[in-house]
């Protein structure tokens, strides 16, 4: 809110209040944040972790197509409040989509995902040929 001073008095600028994008409400119910992702490179897999609280397992869509992993979610909620003189309906829509190009070393048929306590975990197992080879001792002749 901007402040306008007149005769040493402070008044909010009425024009700024009227033309605020959410003056009638509604903008506060649009959430478009994309969750950050942690990627861990383990010996046998890559592990992705996304912090996405307040969702259910059914809210997620995880796809692999042509070595592209896409994780998306879409949640719609509706609330209606009726009182003597008014009715208020609130709609809330949140969604995100993240896409990752998978290296050829990933076994796409063995990818696993789980959602527990607001954390979506996706395990991307490495193919057998991409795993580190154990050290071997070469005997002298």
Summarize the structure.
This protein is mostly beta strands. The chain has one helix and ten strands, in the order ββαββββββββ.
Secondary structure blueprint with pairings:
Blueprint (H helix, E strand, L loop, with lengths): L2 E4 L2 E4 L1 H5 L11 E2 L5 E5 L3 E7 L8 E6 L2 E15 L4 E15 L10 E5 L2 E7 L16
Parallel strand pairs: 3-8
Antiparallel strand pairs: 1-2, 4-5, 5-10, 6-7, 7-8, 9-10
Which properties best describe this structure?
Immunoglobulin-like, disordered N terminus, rod-shaped, 10 strands, 4-stranded mixed sheet, 4-stranded antiparallel sheet, 141 residues, mainly beta
Plain-language structure description:
There is one protein chain. The chain is mainly beta and 141 residues long. It has one domain: Immunoglobulin-like. It contains one helix and ten strands, in the order ββαββββββββ. A four-stranded mixed β-sheet has the order 3-8-7-6, with no helix packed on it. The chain has a four-stranded antiparallel β-sheet with strand order 4-5-10-9, with no helix packed on it. A two-stranded antiparallel ribbon has the order 1-2. It is rod-shaped, with a radius of gyration of 26 Å. 6% of the residues are buried.
């Amino acid at each position: 809110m901007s402040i306008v001073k007149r005769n040493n008095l402070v008044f909010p600028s009425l024009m700024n209040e009227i033309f605020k994008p959410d003056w009638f409400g509604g903008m506060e119910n649009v959430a478009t944040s994309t969750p950050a992702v942690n990627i861990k490179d383990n010996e046998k897999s890559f592990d992705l972790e996304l912090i996405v609280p307040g969702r259910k397992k059914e809210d997620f869509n995880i796809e692999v197509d042509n070595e592209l992993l896409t994780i998306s979610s879409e949640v719609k909620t509706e609330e209606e409040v009726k009182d003597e003189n008014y009715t208020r309906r609130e709609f809330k829509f949140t969604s995100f989509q993240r896409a990752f190009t998978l290296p050829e070393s990933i076994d796409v048929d063995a990818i696993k995902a789980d959602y527990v306590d607001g954390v979506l975990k996706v395990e991307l197992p490495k193919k057998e040929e991409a795993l580190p080879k154990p050290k071997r001792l070469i005997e002298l002749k």
